[in-house]
Design goal:
The chain has 315 residues and is mainly α. 63% of the residues lie in helices and 6% in strands. The chain has 13 helices and 3 strands; from the N terminus they run H-E-H-H-E-H-H-E-H-H-H-H-H-H-H-H. Strands 2-1-3 form a 3-stranded antiparallel sheet. Helix 12 packs antiparallel against helix 13. The longest helix has 31 residues.
């Protein structure tokens, strides 16, 4: 899996571990670019609007919170464009379609401001006003009203739809990694707390390792060769395998699953401890790099074996 570490480093806004927080991190929602967009608003409820603004502050580039809040309060806007369908759907889910009216649409679809949604009342109101003003028959007034209303609606339609922001420059995470994280988020929701905690802790330690290797000045990144090194490849492959494994846990054999999950939790703790030790050792005694990296590699291998064992319980 080839990843541009420099681009990733430039676009990271939060620790990767935050992706597995209960609500997840909005910083990576729009990592996949594409031909989809998200429209939302108007949001009358101040609480929902404030929550949406907080999400968009983290998710979008170029977002003005004050202006964004005002626009969301008054009309329907295009939140962002140029993202993949899955990224658009993830942002819609985070904003809450019922709370904000958020909807994923193809990029080419016209985002119709809220004023347009009142087109029929606009035509009828204009008809009445023009009819009264001209003091002529109701038929002539209605015809004139339709004409005036249509003209006003056309002018309204030409008004550019506000766009609140843009996706962060460059891909923040490759698609398979994002897919694995989303599988972990959705898959653990239906699991018993002890099982969900074991899976999440395993994902967290792998994302911590990825964070180390994405920092070009980090001792682990320097020693391993970064995300494209064998260590990096093994870490992302294990994370991807973990995402696939969790999908079948809800209907896995309980006895087999309990043993496999216990082993997974132990492997995750061991890998976390090894990661901490290696980081300190590489900093204090860089001459032991070969030994430390060997220990880290073996720890990742053990975690991968535990992940595969979990996946096997549902087959």
């Amino acid at each position: 899996m080839s990843i541009n570490a420099a681009t990733l480093e430039a676009t990271r806004r939060a620790p990767l571990e935050s992706l597995l927080d209960p609500k997840g991190s909005a910083a990576y929602l729009l990592s996949d670019l594409g031909s989809w967009a998200v429209d939302a608003g108007p949001v009358a409820d101040a609480r929902f609007r404030a929550a949406a603004v907080e999400t968009l502050k983290e998710a979008l580039a170029g977002f003005d919170p004050v202006q964004g809040a005002a626009l969301l309060a008054s009309e329907r806007v295009r939140v962002v464009g140029g993202v993949s369908e899955s990224s658009a759907a993830a942002l819609v889910a985070r904003l809450g379609p019922q709370a904000t009216g958020a909807k994923a649409v193809p990029q080419a679809a016209l985002a119709v401001p809220s004023a347009h949604r009142g087109g029929i009342p606009l035509l009828g109101g204009a008809g009445v006003l023009v009819g009264v003003g001209l003091a002529v028959s109701w038929l002539i007034g209605a015809i004139a009203g339709v004409a005036v209303g249509a003209g006003l609606a056309m002018l309204n339609r030409k008004r550019p739809t506000p766009v609140l922001g843009s996706p962060p420059e460059g891909p923040a995470l490759p698609g398979p990694v994002l897919d694995a994280i989303r599988q972990l988020q959705s898959g653990t929701a239906s699991l018993a707390p002890s099982v969900a905690n074991a899976v999440t802790s395993s994902g967290r330690v792998l994302l911590r390792l990825a964070d180390h290797m994405l920092d070009e000045g980090d001792f682990i990144a320097i020693a391993t060769g970064g995300v494209d090194s064998p260590t990096g490849e093994a870490s992302f492959a294990t994370l991807t395998a973990l995402g696939k494994a969790v999908r079948g846990l809800s209907h896995a054999d309980p006895a087999r699953m309990d043993a496999a999950v216990t082993a997974l939790a132990a492997a995750a703790r061991a890998t976390a401890a090894t990661l901490d030790h290696v980081g300190e050792a590489l900093k204090d005694t860089p001459g032991t790099a070969a030994t430390q990296l060997d220990a880290l590699g073996k720890s990742i291998e053990s975690l991968r074996a535990a992940v595969d064992a979990v996946g096997a319980t549902s087959t």
